[in-house]
Amino acid sequence: MKKLLNYSIVLFVLTIILLLIIPLPVGLVDVAIILNMSLSMMILVITMTIREPLEFSIFPSLLLVTTLFRLGINVSTTRNILSHGGSSGQIIKAFGDFVLQGNVVVGLVIYLIIVLMQFIVITKGAERVSEVAARFTLDAMPGKQMAIDADLNSGLINEQEAKHRREKIQREADFYGSMDGATKIVKGDSVMSLVTSAINLIGGAIIGMVQGGATIGEVMTTYSIATVGDGLVGQIPSLLISTATGMIVTRAVSEGSLNEDISKQFMAQPIAIMISGVVVAVLTVIPGMPVIPLMVISGGLIGGGYYLSRRLQAEPALATGGAFGPAGSTLRNFSGEEAGGGPLGEEEDAQGPKPVSEEEYFKDVNNVYTLLSVEAIEMEFGYSLIPLVDESVGGRLINRIIIFRRQYAQDMGFVVPSIRLRDSSGLNTNQYCIKIKGEEVAKGEILIDYFLALEPENPEKVIDGIETIEPAYGIPSRWIKPEDREIAEIYGYTVIDPLSVLVTHLSEVVKQHAHELITRQEVMHLVENVRKTSPELVEEAFPNLISYSLFQKMLTSLLKEGVPIKDMVTIIETMLETISEVGLPIKDVDGMIENIRTALKRTITRLYCEDGSMKVITLDAELERTMVGCLSKGERGYYLALNPDVLQSVINQLTVQLKKFNNFSQSPVILTSQVMRVHFYRLIDQFYPNVRVLSFNEISNNVQIQSIGSLTLENTGRKRA
């Protein structure tokens, strides 16, 4: 019984196909018609109550099944009408009598209007909306992927949530692509309805006069009732399904069900409701207009709008900000104790010592030494950006930094140092800058009252806004007004709020310079953290076999190439194994780093693997042999002394090959042998610092490597791959 239920839909579809072949009794046709109407009504209600289209992702397939069911019923009813003298059940006769009302011409006209309305208005509109939605969804996919990566990088979401969002984006693209084709089925169903109606009327008239010997009036009366009734029982469910189709593809920008959205958005516009009531009241001055209905409707609109207006005024207003003095005065030099985690710029206790002047303070030579300290990370803001930072007026930057630090520590095993936040009179009002160890490394500009819309590759329409470049990834963008956000998303733009733009830029800068931030003190903290769980390992390694300076060098090298250092136990054990093999002192530091990377291959593979596949650019065997031959030994080990012409050729080829990764969400990866990996990385690092170079030993065995390009030795006459 359970297996039978599992295959119930399959059996249902097979039964529908049989309807096209096997004649059905009139009673079963009535049951099928009722079932068709009930199913269509249920589908329409579902599309109006869902919050997003993916909640009803089976709709394209269901559309095909219901259309096939309706066509099967049409075939059965047409067969009965032509073979039983215009009789095909009580439902068809009831619908025909109700619409015709004894007048064949009027009844046929009404039926034709219903059919044309279904075909020209609803079906055509749903088809167009589906086409546009499918195109916009596909165009917006790269921008949405970047937005997910930005949220993941800033710590707003974890890896699992990012994976869920990526799957949702893919499902949306598949859904709207399916809907684009499914609407063609609805259109064909409408055309088929007109054809079957013509067959019923014309074929029935011929059969009635030729075989039945009836008069033309009797034949037209009989078969017109059957034709209109049969057309209506097919068109009403078709109309419901077409409406459901248009409904589900227009739910992209909805926040709730259709009922919730309409109620919320209409009730938020009491002025428009009252103005409409006044306009309706003005219509009473037109001679011949029904005054009483107009006044009733006008009074209802004006009264309802007034009630809603009073209700909105009674709700507590949200605080939107506060006043600030000159830059550097009110913000009071934010200096969060733990990257924004502690109290920010707290004033001294009222009973504490009163502040002295700057001259008096620096008379003490010991206070001058406070000027010599350099902050690991600093952010300076122009005056207009202060509300993003100041918690007293709702600023959430500090909370977002805390989230990012926690997420980065979980992902990379490194705790980002404290971040000093301060206002600066040297910046423009909308500018900010990020400093690493006292020197500016990045700068950006934010319009706090706007949203940033990232442009898709081929936008359907360019929206109005201020052109700019997204600071973290360099994507062409536009600052748009908040009221244009929904239309921008419809056109395929990815819209980001100003705070997310700022946090994303900060997170990318921190990741890029993380290797500069890991100090000797931080290394000792990390070692002490390992001691809590593996005290014997730490006692054996430090400081007798592994010095803190060597360990810092290892961790710095790993972080610079984006390798997580969270698995400290594996890193330390690998270093001990290498020392046991080669002895002390360590001369081949690069070799030890490569051994550590090989031990962390599962971690490295996870970073660049998608669905069990890794897309890479490879080195031609001849090019790699040439590079190996160019290795020279110096005082600090081997280095690559490559011919300038060969170097220029490799960089030019790499520029072309890296463009292939624009269509993928994976970071660019170049695959080499273990011997050449570190040397090739140093070769291209100055040109492409964000490109990762991996060796075959660093990739897990269960991963499928997909080469999408190759670098060759072009000066030998070989063609580029």
Describe this structure in words.
- The chain is an alpha/beta fold.
- 58% of the residues lie in helices and 10% in strands.
- Strands 2-1-3-4 form a four-stranded mixed sheet, with helices on one face.
- A hairpin with a 2-residue loop joins strand 10 (631-634) and strand 11 (637-640).
- It starts with a helix and ends in a 10-residue tail after the last strand.
- The model is unreliable at 316-352 and 716-721 (pLDDT under 50).
Count of β-strands: 14
Secondary structure: helix percent: 55-70%
Number of helices: 27
| Largest sheet: number of strands, sense, barrel closure | 4 strands, mixed
The Rg value, from CA coordinates, equals: 36 Å
Average of the residue pLDDT scores: 78
- Describe the global form: elongated
Strand content: 5-15%
- Main-sheet strand order equals 2-1-3-4
Uncertain regions: pLDDT < 50 for 5+ in a row? 316-352, 716-721
State the distance separating the first and last CA atoms: 59 Å
Alpha-beta content class? alpha/beta
